[in-house]
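User: Hey, quick favor. My workstation is busy. Could you predict this chain's structure for me?
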Amino acid sequence: MMKRLPKNVYRVVINAPIEKVWKELTKQDGLCSHFFNARLDTPGLQVDAPVRMRSKDGKYTSVVGEVLEWDPPYTYSHSFKFTNLDDPYCKVTYKLKEVEGGTEFTLINENVPAGTKTADYMDQGGTFITETLKAVVETGRPTFKQRLLLSVIGMTAFMTPKVCLSENWPFDKKGDYNDADFQPSEQED
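Assistant: No problem, here it is.
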């Protein structure tokens, strides 16, 4: 059985109502800066629905998974796999809670395979996602530093491997994240 990392939790308070944060987090009608300028693509956000993070033009898919929990506007959870890596699936959960001063946004990465590129990418991505979501919701756009990173990502898109072509990741392609390696984390938030 592959060793899994402990739960990683990223948390930030966003100065906005919960509905505004939820709307940006689950946006399907444009690019999501907080998801590295990917577009959330799904036939419908509900439990068991496939989710794909695709490029602006839809040609490439960077992340695949299926919705595991859907409780608007409080919890959205899905399995998660980078399409360019052979690593097993892990789990990502987004939790929103109304607090004084706005909305507490919590990103939880669970069952990430230890010692993998997925683990490295998830660790770097957690901070970017939480901070960029905060900036976009509060100001309408990412910070200068975030925009700079997003433009570099855009300029290197031509280097995307062929395995990431969206034709290789249709909605009916089911993930294998229910295997023996994918056990619920026993840690609490």
